[in-house]
Structure formats: structure tokens, C-alpha cells
Amino acid sequence: MALEEFENTKSNGILWGFGVFVSIVLIVLIVLGAWWGSEPGQFNIMDEAEKRAKMDHETEPLPVGYVFTNTLAHIAEVLLHKPGGYISNDVGLPGVLLDNVPSWEYGALVMLRDSTSALRNHFARDQSQSAEDHDLAVAEPYFYFEHNSWALPSTEAEYQKGIDALHRYMRRLLHYGGNVKQSQFYSRADNLWQYTEVVIKRLGGLSTRLTANTAGTNFGPGLSPEEREKAEKSGTPVPKITWWEIDNVFYEARGASWALLHILRAVKHDFADILYDKRAMRTVDIMIRALENSLEPILSPMILNGDGYGLFANYCLTMANYIARANAAALDLRDIMNRG
Fold it and tell me: What is the pTM of this model?
């Protein structure tokens, strides 16, 4: 009888210990998930550029293009070194359970890719027939590497190579070979116009997807067969975003807005002369303000997507509104830069 009681006590102790262990693991995973799942804050583009210049042992005024390029490099560094690191390619806990953070990372990554392509193909080239910068030719393809690769080579390793190539270009912007700069950055109206064209398409696509879960705003489920057939013949069908996926679209838009906000601040600095000359500085400020509003803190523990004038808010429509404002200003900026 005593032996039986001892065995029961021992079994209960093992179960109790196992339960405590599982509870501790769950608490740790929840805390880590909350920490890793938080969005990175904004950074000061001038402070980061000056910090990088000091690392390169330069204290002279920063050359045109240095702030823009450093902003791109620092956006990539934030993606890699934020709490939890780069999560899109995680295969372990808790990263594999965080679906919103990878969407945020992808949105920021798309804006980084577009800007790096513009830097390589437009901003660093005098004309269409001039040679491209060799470091930028190296940097751009690395940022187009598969965004969720966990095997060798890992995504982080490839993106770090792109960052290193941007830093080499920045060092050459700072130094002269004889009396000629070793690398160039051309802050011209036609260059900015070409980049703005890409931004317009990105913002327009995000705004459309954010509203594609609302009745009457798409040509997917919810329409009658006749209406759907008519929409498909028009060539502009938009698939409906389900409630299960809309929070991912929302966080992708948050990541894109975060990255573009910093890029536009850098554009405002390095293209200041042409923006003042074209009287377009106010237009860029409107874009920046709209993106700042889109990044206001989220008070709800989940993304609310109420209908119309219902009881609950619709976060996606609010985000789409701010992005649409930024897109409208981008259209104005494109037209201003395209004028003679």
C-alpha cells in the first residue's frame, strides 16, 4: 500500500513538473513572440548617415546621394537586426508562428528593391549610355534574392552582401580620385520622375488590395455571375481578399509605408535643389505626412475590419485612405518633375 502511494506521488510529481515546464516554455514563447512581432520604430536618416560617415573617418559635409544610399542600407540592416532578426525564413519557434512580421518585412523589402534599382539604373548614371556603377551592379541583385530562403545561402547572408556593396559605393562618394569623385549621384528631375512612376504603381496596388475585402470594391466573390463576367471582360478583375489574409496585406502595407517614409525623407534631402526649383517640396511633404499617419500605433490586439458604418473600425480602409493620399501626391510629383 505504501509502495502504491509512493508510485502515485511520483507519477503526480512527474506530471506536475512536466506541466510546469510546458507552461514556462509557453510563457517564454508568448513573450518572445510579442517582442519579435513588434514593428521597428522610425530612425533619423541624418543621424544614421553621419554615424556611418564617421565610421569611414569622414567629417566633411555629406555629398549628394550619401544620405539616400545610407538610408537604403540602414533599412536593410533594420530588417536583418531588429528584435528576432529576419523572420521571413524562420523554421523554428516562435518565428514560424508570426505571420504578420514576414508580411511587414516583405512590404519594406519591395520598397528597398525598387529604390536600389532606381539608384543603380537612374540616380548613379549620367545618361542612358553611360556605364553603371560596379558596386551598385553587385548590390541590386542580392536584394532580389529569395526572401524566405533558410538553406544555404541564407537570405540574411545574401542581403548582407548587398549592404556591403552599398557601403562601398558610399565610401567612394566620400572620396576623390585626383580631382574627380570615384562615384556619382545625379539628383535630376528626370531621375526622380522615373522613380516616382514605380512608387505610384506600388502604392496603387497596395491601396487596391487593402480595399479588396470590402463589399462592392472588387470583382471577385460577392458579385453575381453576370456582373463577374462583365468585370472579367473589362480586363480589370481584382481577387477578393479573405478575412484570413487581409491582416497580412495590412502589415505588408505598413512595412512598405515604413520603408518609403524614410526613403522620401532621404529624397527630400538629396533632391532638395531640384524640389525647390520645381516648387515640389510641399508635394513631398504631403506624401511624407500621409505615410506618417499610416504608421500611427495600433491600439487593438487584432486588425479590425468592420463593414461600412458598422460598430467596428476598418483598419484596412483607413490604411488605404492614407496610402491613396500619398499616391495622389506622388502623381502630382511625377507631373511636376516631367515639366520642362
Answer: 0.85
- Where do the H-state alpha helices sit in 126-154? 134-143
pLDDT over threshold 80, residue 245: no
CB under 8 Å, gap of 24 or more: what pairs does 288-294 form?
Answer: 288/261, 288/264, 290/322, 290/323, 290/325, 290/326, 290/329, 291/257, 291/260, 291/261, 291/264, 291/322, 291/326, 292/261, 293/322, 294/253, 294/254, 294/257, 294/319, 294/322, 294/323, 294/326
CA gyration radius, the chain: 25
Domains of the chain: total? 1
Neighbours of 89 (CB within 10 A): 19
Phi/psi of residue 240, nearest 5 degrees? -75, 135
What is the rounded average pLDDT for all residues in the chain? 82
- Phi/psi for 176 (5° steps) reads -115, 145
Residue type, 187: S
**Chain CA centroid to CA 326, Å:** 15
Q: Which residues contact 182 (CB under 8 A, 6 or more apart)?
A: 172, 173, 175, 176
- In the prediction, which pLDDT does 224 show? 43
The residue range of the domain holding 192 is 2-338
C-beta neighbour count of 80 within 10 angstroms: 15
pLDDT digit string (tens) for 251-305? 999 999 999 999 999 999 999 999 999 999 999 999 999 999 999 988 877 777 7
CA dihedral 219, 224, 227, 231 (to 10 degrees): 30
* Largest Cα–Cα separation, the chain: 100
What residue has cell string 484596412? 316
Q: 73, 193, 171: which is closest to 123 by C-alpha?
A: 193
Percent of the chain with pLDDT strictly greater than 70: 76
pLDDT digits (tens, 9 = 90+) for 183-201: 789 889 989 999 999 999 9
With beta carbons less than 8 A apart as the criterion, state whether 187 and 273 touch.
yes
Angle at 263 between CA 257 and CA 268, to 5 degrees: 120
| Segment 203-236, tens digit of pLDDT | 999 998 888 766 444 444 444 444 444 444 445 5
